[in-house]
Write a structure and sequence with these properties.
Two copies of one chain form a homodimer. By secondary structure, chain A is of the alpha+beta class. Helix content of chain A is 16%, strand content 36%. Chain A contains two helices and eleven strands; from the N terminus they run E-E-E-E-E-E-E-H-E-E-E-H-E. The longest helix of chain A has 16 residues. Chains A and B meet through helix 1 and strand 8 of A and helix 1 and strand 8 of B.
Chain lengths: 181, 181
C-alpha cells in the first residue's frame, strides 16, 4: 500500500503541485493549483494480535500478496472510527476466525521506510478452532520451536514474536517499542 | 484536521463514488468512476512528549486553533518517513524549542471519534530555557499542583499528564493505553 504521488485535487479535480504551503508549514504538500486545497499524507497504522493458547501462538499463512504463502500474525490497516484495540480484534476475526479475549498492548514498531506503525496486542485464545478468512490459506498453532522462523512474512511480526517468547520465558510481558530499518 | 469526503480521483481528477470495491473489501471507499483507483482513508497519528525537569513538566500555550490559548504538551501529526519517536522529538523542538533526551513511550490513546491515535514519549529536559515556535505563545514548567488542569487543550493531554504524575508518585513509569470517547 505504498501510495503514488497525488496528481489531482480531491476537492475539485484540478492538477496539484508539490510545494510549501503558505501557512508556515516546513514540508512540501500537494497543493491544488485552483482551489488551494492542501493534501496531507501521513503514516498508516497496522494493528494486529499475538493470539496464544498455552505455549502456542496462532499464525496465518497468507493468501494475498505481498508475501503470499508466508506466515504472519493476524493484522491489517486500522480503519477510520475504530480504536487500535478494536482494529486488532477485527483483523483477528477476519483473518483467523479466532475466538479470544483481547489483552494488553505488546509492541509498537515504527517502519519509517514504508511510513507505517505496527501495533500488536496479546489475545488469549478461548478455542483452538479457527475459521480463516479469504486472506488466509491456513491458521495453525505453533510452539516457539515449531514457528517457521525463516518463513515469517514481515520483520515486525518476527520481532514481535521473538519478544513475546522472550517475555514468556522471563515470566513478565512488557510493551516493546522498536524501529525497523 | 477532520477531512471532508473525497470528491475527485487523486490519479486522474474524475469524480469518485463511495462504494464497495470489487476486491472483497467490506468497507465503502472512494472509487474513481473512470480509472477505478481506490482511495483509502485511515486514522492519523499524533506524536508528542511529556518533557520533564525534576518535578515539573513543560506545557505550551497554543497560538493556533483549535483551542487557541489553552495549554498542551508538544505534539503534532506524524509525518511520512519518520518513526513515532522521531516525530515526537521533532514536535518538541518545533513547538517548545526544548533541549532534551528522549526516553520511553508513556501513553497510546485512541480517539476513534476523530480517527486519531496519540502517542506520548517521556523527554528528560536538559535545560530550562525554551524557544517556542510560532505555534506556541509561551512554554513554561509546571509542578503537578501548578498545572492549569481546567485550561488543558485536549483530553489526551490531560489523561497523559494525570498518568505521568500518578506513575511518578508510585515511583514506576509504565506504558498506558487508553480510549477516549
Amino acid at each position: 500500500m505504498l501510495r503514488s504521488p497525488i496528481k489531482h485535487c480531491r476537492n475539485c479535480g484540478t492538477v496539484v503541485a508539490y510545494r510549501l504551503p503558505d501557512d508556515g508549514d516546513t514540508r512540501e504538500r500537494a497543493v491544488c493549483t485552483s482551489c488551494a486545497t492542501i493534501h496531507y499524507e501521513n503514516p498508516l497504522n497496522v494493528v494486529g494480535t499475538v493470539p496464544y493458547l498455552g505455549d502456542r501462538v496462532l499464525l496465518c499463512k497468507r493468501n494475498i500478496e505481498p508475501r503470499w504463502g508466508k506466515w504472519t500474525l493476524p493484522a491489517g490497516f486500522m480503519e477510520l472510527g475504530e480504536t487500535t484495540a478494536e482494529g486488532a480484534a477485527r483483523e483477528t476475526v477476519e483473518e483467523a476466525g479466532a475466538q479470544f479475549q483481547l489483552e494488553g498492548l505488546l509492541s509498537v514498531l515504527s517502519v519509517p521506510r514504508v511510513s507505517q506503525v505496527h501495533l500488536f496486542y496479546l489475545a488469549r485464545l478461548t478455542s483452538d478452532r479457527f475459521e480463516p478468512g479469504i486472506e488466509t490459506i491456513e491458521a495453525r498453532l505453533f510452539t516457539e520451536a515449531e514457528v517457521p522462523w525463516d518463513e515469517i512474512a514481515f520483520r515486525t511480526v518476527r520481532e514481535t514474536l521473538m519478544r513475546y517468547f522472550d517475555d514468556r520465558r522471563r515470566g513478565s510481558i512488557g510493551v516493546h517499542t522498536l524501529d525497523i530499518d
